[in-house]
Structures are given as C-alpha cells and as structure tokens.
C-alpha cells in the first residue's frame, strides 16, 4: 500500500507544477476566488479544459515558487506576478484569447444566500408583492421597518424596500427574512482582477477595449504629443507637418510685407493688390455645363413670356376705335 505524500513532498510537487506552467504559458489571469466552492471550481476547470489550466494554492507557496523559478531561469519578469498574489486568489494559465477566456470564466456564477456577517457585494432590494407567509410572520417585517398588509390571509409587501446596501454586513434579521422569502441575492464566481501577458501586467478592463477605442486613444495621444512639441519647439514626426506649415506662413508674411519675392508668393501679392481679378477668374472658370445651361434657361424663360403689346394696342384698348 502506497503511503500518503508528506507535506514536504506536496510542496515539491506544487513547485514543480507551477514552474512548469510558467515555462509553458506566457498569459495568466489572476482571479479572485472568494465564496467559490469546490464543485463550482471543478465546473470551471471542465469549461476551460483544452487551452487553459486553473491553479489554486496558498499565496506563500505561489510566491515562493515564482521566486524560485525566476532565480533558476534568470528571467525576472515573473516577479511581476508576486504583488498580484494578495487575498484569496488563483491563477489561470492560458494559450487562448484572453478576452474569450475571461468571458468564459464569468459564465460560471452560482447564486448564494445572504449569510450573517457577509459583506454585501450589491444592493439588496425586496420587491413588493405577496410573500406567501402567514400573518404570524409579520414580526420580521416590523423589525426591518418594511410596510406590509394582510391580503387573503398572507403577508403582502406594499412597496419595494432596500434591505441591504452594498458594502454593509448582512444582519441576522435580514438573512432570516431573505431565507424565508427564498431570495438568493448574491452570485459568486471567479473574478479576473489582473492580467499578466509575457511580463506585462494590466487591468482586465483593457480586454474590453475595441479597435475603435484604441484608434481614438492613439489619436488623442498623437494630438497631445503634437501640442507639446509645438509649444516646446521640439521637432517630432507628429509636429513636423505643422512646423513646416507655420514656417512657410512666416516666410510668406515676410515676402508680402517686403520687396523680397519668390514665385509662390507672386500670386498672393497679386491677389492682395487686386482681388477683383480673381473674382472674374472664378466666374470664368465655372463649369461649361453651367455656363451653357444659363443661356438656355434664359432663352426658355424668354420663350414662355407673352409678347409685349404695342403702344397702339394699348391705346386702342383704353379708348376704343370710335374715338
């Protein structure tokens, strides 16, 4: 009969497993595992099976293994993981798309009752309606100042009530009432807290950024770099077009104000001396179709007008033939 592994042997095996995972994977999701049960964790492992591995353990053991591996390989980027190993956390090593893996993890949430002393992760609101409880249970509602009435032999809540606020601890009365009403207000699962990608560490919100978001942020960054470069008169690729344009404007201004000239400035000077020339040129350069359409339209308009009456016709019309 094979004996059970000793505590020292378990540590050696754990170190070997974690170090091997660090060798095989460059992407790691650091997840919070508060209130996650063993069955739930097993379902998550099954759901991620294929390109991801879930590893749990004590923080001290994980930190020790990471330090050992960094010293052994001389790759200190693994040390960036150590500050992330705080609280009840685990590691998900993956070769898949980080966003897809994060979304898959989020699917495995399980409803949980409000236990006494638990800090509420969300606001808990009791909805109005018939509770199905007999009138002898009204004491629970009275203690919590919940307005009720008796309707057809059962207790009915009149208005929605905010029973517990986010961040507050669940009291015994609140827990008992929610249990009687069959309300399981909380849901728990692995929550991604940090992302490690080949030595870089960033927030999981980065995974939700779209290509449009990245382009917008890049454009804002380029605009800021350009503004700083122009203000400091420091040449950069982003500021160069603006610098050349501003320099040309300065040269052109000097040419306009002095006798010095060059071919590109002649047209500007000519315009400033007699803008009317350019107005005539603009009319002359109008599209041929438009210039041809104007006479045609004028001819059409003239054709539609009735012929003007002669002076004799006007006279005859006013005074008649007998006069």
TrEMBL record:
Q: Name one Pfam family in it.
A: Ribosomal_L10
**Ranges annotated as biased composition (Low complexity):** 288-298
Whether Glycoprotein counts among this entry's keywords is no
Give start and end of each Large ribosomal subunit protein uL10-like insertion domain.
114-183
Q: Give the InterPro entries listed for this entry.
A: Ribosomal_protein_uL10, Ribosomal_uL10, Ribosomal_uL10-like_insert, Ribosomal_uL10-like_insert_sf, Ribosomal_uL10-like_sf, uL10_eukaryotes
A GO cellular component annotated for this chain's UniProt record is: cytosolic large ribosomal subunit
GO molecular function terms attached to this record: large ribosomal subunit rRNA binding; structural constituent of ribosome
Q: Which SUPFAM superfamilies match?
A: Ribosomal protein L10-like
Q: Bias category Acidic residues: which stretches? A: 306-323
Q: Name one GO biological process term.
A: cytoplasmic translation
Alphabetical UniProt keywords? Ribonucleoprotein, Ribosomal protein
Location of region: Disordered: 288-323
Q: What does this protein do?
A: Ribosomal protein P0 is the functional equivalent of E.coli protein L10.
Subunit details for this protein?
Answer: P0 forms a pentameric complex by interaction with dimers of P1 and P2.
Question: What family is reported?
Answer: Belongs to the universal ribosomal protein uL10 family.
> What's the protein called, per UniProt?
60S acidic ribosomal protein P0
Lineage from the top down?
A: Eukaryota, Viridiplantae, Streptophyta, Embryophyta, Tracheophyta
């Amino acid at each position: 009969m094979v004996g059970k592994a000793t505590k020292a042997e378990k540590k050696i095996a754990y170190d070997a497993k974690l170090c091997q995972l660090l060798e095989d994977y460059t992407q790691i999701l650091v997840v919070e595992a508060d209130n996650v049960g063993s069955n739930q964790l097993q379902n998550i492992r099954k759901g991620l099976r294929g390109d991801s591995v879930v590893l749990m353990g004590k923080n001290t053991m994980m930190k020790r293994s990471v330090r050992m591996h960094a010293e052994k390989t001389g790759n200190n980027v693994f040390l960036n993981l150590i500050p992330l190993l705080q609280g009840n956390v685990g590691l998900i090593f993956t070769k898949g798309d980080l966003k897809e893996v994060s979304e898959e993890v989020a699917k495995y949430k399980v409803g949980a009752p409000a236990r006494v002393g638990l800090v509420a992760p969300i606001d808990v609101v009791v909805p109005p309606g018939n509770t199905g409880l007999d009138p002898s249970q009204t004491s629970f509602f009275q203690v919590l100042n919940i307005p009720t009435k008796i309707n057809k032999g059962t207790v009915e809540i009149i208005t929605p009530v905010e029973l517990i606020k986010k961040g507050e601890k669940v009291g015994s009365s609140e827990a008992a009432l929610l249990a009687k009403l069959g309300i399981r207000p909380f849901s728990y699962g692995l929550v991604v807290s940090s992302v490690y990608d080949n030595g870089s560490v960033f927030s999981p919100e980065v995974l939700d950024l779209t290509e449009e978001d990245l382009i917008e942020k890049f454009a804002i960054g380029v605009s800021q770099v350009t503004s700083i470069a122009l203000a400091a008169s420091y040449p950069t690729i982003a500021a160069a077009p603006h610098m050349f344009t501003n320099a040309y404007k300065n040269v052109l201004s000097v040419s306009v104000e002095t006798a010095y000239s060059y071919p590109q400035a002649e047209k500007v000077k000519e315009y400033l001396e007699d803008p009317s020339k350019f107005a005539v040129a603009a009319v002359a350069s109008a599209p041929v179709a438009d210039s041809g359409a104007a006479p045609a339209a004028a001819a059409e308009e003239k054709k539609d007008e009735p012929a003007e009456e002669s002076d004799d016709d006007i006279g005859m019309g006013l005074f008649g033939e007998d006069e």
